[in-house]
User: Fold this.
Amino acid sequence: MVYLTRKIEFSASHRYHNPDFSPEENARIFGKCNNPNGHGHNYVLEVTVGGETDPATGMVLDLKELKELMEREVMDRMDHRSLNHEVPELAGQIPTCENIAALIWKLLAPKVRRGQLTRVRLWESPDLYVDCYGDGGAW
Amino acid sequence: MKLELTRRYAFNAAHRLHSPHLSEAENQRVYGKCNNPHGHGHNYVAEVTVTGALDPATGMIAYLTELDRFVEREVIEPFDHKNLNEDLPAFRECVPTTENLCIEIFNRLRHFPGARLVRVRLEETARNSFEYAGDSEGSHR
Assistant:
């Protein structure tokens, strides 16, 4: 098994707010992320695909294909957008790093044609990231 | 959906690697520069990884504010700008290698009430790091 990782960056805004919580609860649980007018991040996404190499090409999955898939499914959907207002798949959810990573997993997993999606790592900032492994175990 | 959240925390501390079980010459040979009698220091970075069920009401597996407070109290306050050999009872008898420091940090954080601690990865410098996930294999890759 060989693992291949491709990295991209996208920038987006979000706000953490649950209308079922009181203003005090929202402030306590979400802290600064509850700022009414939102804020943003430069997200860094690392997508890892594992599999056996194709003897004919020496590749697990053509990097270009993975790059195009990530651009189509993630960049086109999220880059320079408001995650609260412009990503319908996140409607009704708090756009946390956990929920975004889980959504990216769901978007990519069925479309990886060779090998299998192993890990989605989403960096929200240089000191925070979430790993999603789908329903599989840890890598 | 299996999710793990990792947060990086920085702290700076001094240490000296010296074992009372070794002779002066052996200490020199084993620890090299790190055996300098007056100690030296590092900018450590601790990567703390937790896992748990995603709470649909918050979209989180752990409240970051709670994790930050817990790590601040258990690790940053006692370790930052300290001399590990002199200021930490855990290292009176035990050599404060980054392996031992990594285990000490894991044990201090394993009782975090907000989520399950998966592992601690500790960077001593930008070029070396150590990981500890407890005694059982767990989900450590």
Q: What stands out?
A: The interface with chain A takes residues 1-9, 49, 54, 56-61, 63-65, 139-141 of chain B (CB under 8 Å). Residues 4-132 of chain B form a domain with the Tetrahydropterin Synthase; Chain A fold (CATH 3.30.479.10). Helices of chain B lie at 24-31, 64-79, 84-87, 98-109. The mean pLDDT of chain B is 94.
